[in-house]
Amino acid sequence: MEISGPENKIPDLKGINGVKEDVMDLEEAKIYQERYDLSMERIAQIAAEETVAAPFIDYFQKMASFIMEIKVLFEKLCSGELNAYSCEQWEELNHSLYEDILPEHYDNSYGNPEYAVSKLGEIHGRILSFLYTELRGMIAFAFEGRMWDMVIICEVFIEIYNCFEEEELPVYKKIQQILYWFISDYSDRTVTRRIQESVDPNLDFAVQLIMNEDLSDLRYLYKFGEYITENERKTAEYLNYLDQKTIDLMASTYTEGYRIGFEKAKIDLSSKETVNIRYNLGFERMIRKAIQNFEKMGLRPVIYRSAVNSINKRQQLRIGYYGAIPNKQFDYDHRADNTIYLDKPFVERKLGVLRTAYEKYKDLANRHAGPACVEIFGEQPFIPENKPAAYHMSEKQEKLTVFYNNESSQITNRYIKGEERSFTIIAFPIPEIGEQFEEIFREVIKLNTLDYHLYERIQQTIIDALDQGSCVHIVGKGDNHTDLTVQLHELKDPAVQTNFENCVADVNIPVGEVFTSPKLAGTSGVLQVKEVYLNELKYVDLSITFEDGMIKEYTCGNFEKAEENKRYILENVLYHHESLPMGEFAIGTNTTAYAMARKYKISDKLPILIAEKMGPHFAVGDTCYSWSEDIAVHNPDGKEIIAKDNEVSLLRKEDIGKAYLGCHTDITIPYDELQLIEAVKNDGTKTEIIRDGKFVLEGTQELNEALGEFTVKS
Q: What is the DSSP secondary structure assignment for residue 379, as one 8-state letter?
């Protein structure tokens, strides 16, 4: 927060690394300073007084003590005192900020809605657990010097506390309305700030740390304000150990993939000025080099933290940069907290703010090129627990969520046009993957830099065979009961047209796959996977039935009750849509990745980015060409890819609100669960691509060699 004027009593934020807040005039700054001081004075009293009844006194005193802890943190950040901390002191401070929600303490944390309800009752426990979660956002606000954000959450905490000081306990509706109007009224600041973060390179808190800190001194990790574990420390240590040539290779593979994505799509990158870098802490040495590479392309980095307040979150997903996730169950428990305030007037209010915000930053948005993502893998698989005490959306709210996601996507696309942006994604392991971390890391670097010319040639052979078919038949093996027919679009001129894109290492790293947007009519059957991880959630015996390309039925074996399994999929795969189309069918060709996964026994830890290259996969939701269907795309052989639409996306020509779903989830069948993939011609003749998990099409057998290179380690 930069303050204009010669004299003020605002904390000097110069001690906070990388802070560059919105400029306030002196009068506004004084007002917020006064509000901050008054709030902190009152909350200090709350931490010690006993004016509310049991059992609520324990909750409010603990929350007040946490806020006082943040106040001290903020003062130390402003004074620069923390710069003298040793690594051990930083680690102790970092742990103290997050320890209450760590798994070993979560059973007795008010952040756990189950515990909160057991202690505070059904009426108040759940909603006060939500308030607890919002208060935790103050950690990030303190590190970024965002006093205004701290002030408003402290004021609403005091307002709710005052309700409990009254003679009678407040009814649920009273607390709900306070929070409803708090979130709604301030959305013009909180949502607008989030849009600014997504396009404005001058909000460079993270960039300043990445570019200016001594990365050999691991204390820098703690200055982001995120939770830091051995994963982040050891990742940073390992990257510091690597020679510059290797770092350059990692960074250039990532940034060149981004550049080539624009080149292949014939999008003018020179008209863009910013790129959004998303990554996990620990990879700063690579990211620093990537920033330098992007700057040579004329792109400045936009790097924002994953959202910490409910209004800007999307379920438990984290979008932006972040450190370790302290407790995935905590995130999952609070995935539907917006149930508290989600109604039609709020949705209309938020959409209005979104439009105004994009209009305010339209020039920055127009010059934004899109995201460049670095994913991680190797964490222990997470199987969530469904807690009745957590908030769950009503059917009406589910429909409102679908409506909001659809409308907000349209607004975003008006300012950051789909046909003018691109992306890239690359992934690396983290130390939690096991003792062979360094060996696996080196293998992944090789994987990310495989000879794409080889894959391009072999994949073209597969495409040539598939293009002769009218549909593709996929059959599972053993306990996998997949039996699915995918209908293909008709090629009016096969000499110059194709259904499949020959995908090598550009936007999706590593190589390789061939993919298409299926014709929905005639695409029917059962897709089953014994075990799969989608957006960091595990699914057991996932089964989806398609009828004319649309999901008709779905279930899994995660929970004892069938309705819990259906809701799990509805929330986390269908994203509350009643049904979704099959937006993509692909055949992954990266047998090297598959062999690596088997060699190190890490199949259950690979991200979908790599896993989707290890067998056929099917995406439910939008096509791969959403918002850019009318841009001509050609394969290296010169043929134009004509299968970019399906019957749902074509609705954009009549009602754009019905054409896009705002989601795209890939589900892969591994080679060892695959009996057959064959192209079926109109006359009924068939051409086998894969049989019994091996490529059998003439000209593709070279892919099988990788499967013999590695033996499974015991």
A: P
Cβ atoms of 319 and 303 closer than 8 Å: no
Per the structure block, which two tokens stand in for 523? 């695409």
DSSP state of 102: S
Positive or negative CA dihedral for 277, 281, 284, 286?
Answer: negative
Which 8-state DSSP code applies to residue 534?
E
Map tokens 């360094």 to a residue: 438
Q: Provide the pairing of β-strand 274-278 with 483-487.
A: unpaired
Q: What is the rounded CA–CA span in Å between residue 514 and residue 703? A: 14
Report the C-alpha gap between 249 and 253 in whole angstroms: 6
DSSP letter, residue 314: B
CA dist., res. 118 & res. 108, Å (int): 10
Which distant-in-sequence residues (6+ apart) come within 8 Å of 677 by Cβ? 472, 473, 474, 475, 587, 616, 688, 689, 690
The token pair at 635 is: 């394969």
Q: How many CB atoms lie within 10 A of CB 467?
A: 18
478 Rama class: left (phi>0) / alpha (psi -120 to 50) / beta: left
Give the whole-angstrom CA distance, residue 688 versus residue 678. Answer: 4
CA distance 495 to 295: 41
What predicted TM-score, i.e. pTM, was given to this entire model? 0.90
Q: How does pLDDT run across 93-146, given as a tens digit for each residue?
A: 999 999 999 999 999 999 999 999 999 999 999 999 999 999 999 999 999 999
Residue with tokens 């005091």: 158
Best CA proximity match to 153, nearest among 170, 125, 122, 178: 178
